[in-house]
Amino acid sequence: MFETAQSPANGAACERLILGVESSCDETGLALIALPKFGAPRLLSHALHSQIDMHQAYGGVVPELASRDHIRRVVPLARQVLSESGRLMSDVDVIAYTRGPGLAGALLVGAGVACALGAALGKPLLGVHHLEGHLLSPFLSEDPPEFPFVALLVSGGHTQLMRVDGVGRYELLGETVDDAAGEAFDKSAKLMGLPYPGGPHLAKLAMQGRPDVFDLPRPMLHSGNLDFSFAGLKTAVRTHLVRQGLLDQPALLVEQSTQALLADLAAATQAAIVEVLIKKSLAALKVTGLKRVVVAGGVGANKLLREQLDQACARRGIRVHYPELHLCTDNGAMIALAAAMRIQAGRATLSMEPTFDVKPRWDLSTL
């Protein structure tokens, strides 16, 4: 199944190699991480295939199509990371895969491949929590954080604030009670007639608009706790489109005369989401007394969020850490890294028994 390559002469005698497999939604990611006996894990290679083009025609992810595409992509991507790292499949010491949360069928593809490789090679398996991968991904950046810190997780359907005291030591501080920030971006973008995935398109359109033209709500901004709510923001966007006679009017949405109005609405939407995320994060830092924050997940790539959070934290003497931009989306590197850090911290339960026990719903705070 896999082509052979020249194995390093003396390279990995004191290292463990972890192969990471990510298949929780609409990206197939494979990566190889080297875990030295002493020192930090390092990324040897990673490869990623996005299904965006395939799902665009449907305006969102189609689970069955996502699962089938993972099946097609995972082996070629595994070959690619092995070739780029100059390693053999037999060199791999641990096979890590996303156990959850995510789409059940998509998760089963990754779990099935990992279990098959583990059984064939006699290598142990480690199921990884998808959000733990995001949370720890900044440790692969040029400016890695140190424990403890507050983590703002803004990934897909998740918006959470966590206190992180170490690997596997997570305390939930607050989370969304309905739509997550990413969903607010995507659903608002869809109402505006923007293509899938809507979040990046809305952020791009917002650069041409003025955020003060539309008065949009900041749900739960003054709730007295660290929870979030973004469903009301999406409803407000819909209301403004109804007032302008633009809701469900695709022909009008693409007209040049409409673009300035949509740009203003996009800018207002983005500003509302970013303000809530920043103020809740600052509140979490105040509650915990910590001086370090990590932002992880797809929304963490948002330019406005980074700029305004950097400014707010600089004024307060707080350090901010992000993953590298190419590691903000779902990827195999974060799964391999999470496995490596768990092994290094002595908090990994490796298994030689193949299992397909995936967890489409899985609370990070239960780890």
Major β-sheet profile: 5 strands, mixed
CATH homologous superfamily grouping of the largest domain = ATPase, nucleotide binding domain
The rounded distance between the terminal residues' Cα atoms is 35 Å
Q: Give the domain tally.
A: 2
Total beta strands: 10
- How many separate helices? 11
Radius of gyration: 21 Å
Write down the overall geometry: globular
Annotated CATH topology of the largest domain: Nucleotidyltransferase, domain 5
Query: What is the level 1 CATH name of the largest domain?
Result: Alpha Beta
SS-derived structural category: alpha/beta
Note poorly predicted spans.
3-11
The whole-number mean of residue pLDDT values reads 94
Q: How are strands sequenced across the largest beta sheet?
A: 3-2-1-4-5
User: Architecture of the largest domain, CATH level 2?
Assistant: 2-Layer Sandwich
What features would you describe in this structure?
With 367 residues, the chain is of the alpha/beta class. The chain has 2 domains: 15-136 and 328-366, ATPase, nucleotide binding domain (Nucleotidyltransferase, domain 5, 2-Layer Sandwich), CATH 3.30.420.40; 146-322, ATPase, nucleotide binding domain (Nucleotidyltransferase, domain 5, 2-Layer Sandwich), CATH 3.30.420. 41% of the residues lie in helices and 19% in strands. The protein has helices at residues 52-56, 63-85, 104-121, 130-136, 181-191, 198-206, 231-243, 250-253, 256-288, 303-316, 332-344, and strands at residues 15-22, 27-36, 42-50, 94-100, 125-129, 149-155, 158-166, 169-175, 292-296, 319-321. The strands form 2 sheets. It has a 5-stranded mixed beta sheet with strand order 3-2-1-4-5, sandwiched between helices. Strands 8-7-6-9-10 form a 5-stranded mixed beta sheet, sandwiched between helices. Helix 5 packs antiparallel against helix 9. The model is unreliable at 3-11 (pLDDT under 50).
